[in-house]
Amino acid sequence: xxxxxxxxxxxxxxxxxxxxxxxxxxxxxxxxxxxxxxxxxxxxxxxxxxxxxxxxxxxxxxxxxxxxxxxxxxxxxxxxxxxxxxxxxxxxxxxxxxxxxxxxxxxxxxxxxxxxxxxxxxxxxxxxxxxxxxxxxxxxxxxxxxxxxxxxxxxxxxxxxxxxxxxxxxxxxxxxxxxxxxxxxxxxxxxxx
Length: 193
Hints:
The protein is α+β, with helices and mostly antiparallel strands.
């Protein structure tokens, strides 16, 4: 009796593409079984179980919190700035008419959002005169720009948001970012509704 290596034995003559076709057929069958089985499930529960299966951590929500969920800031489409604040002052030094025209034109679409972030130059003199706080002076500068925009009718107050912390610019200025925030009346994820 002679022993031949496995590679040397005669294998049945099947084309190579036949195995690929069988794999594809099984994959397609599995997909249709998944779609049929998930047809009657709650979409939120299904997406949560898929996230859990792939190891994605879900954001914990506390049911006792009445605060609305935090929204992502609108992606900035146009940027501008108000500069020239005096040291320790929140008064707008330049003529606000060009700023108001720019915001009125750029934010004409009601789905846009205006994001204001203000800063100080970091010196010991550029602080709020009463509290000696640079953060309060920066907030006052952003508020002064918001008041000028709202008082002129360039934008409604509910479309203005303030940013601070790491987003605060350096220098005695207020950065204005106008971005598309979407339609608030539409659900954020229409596929799951």
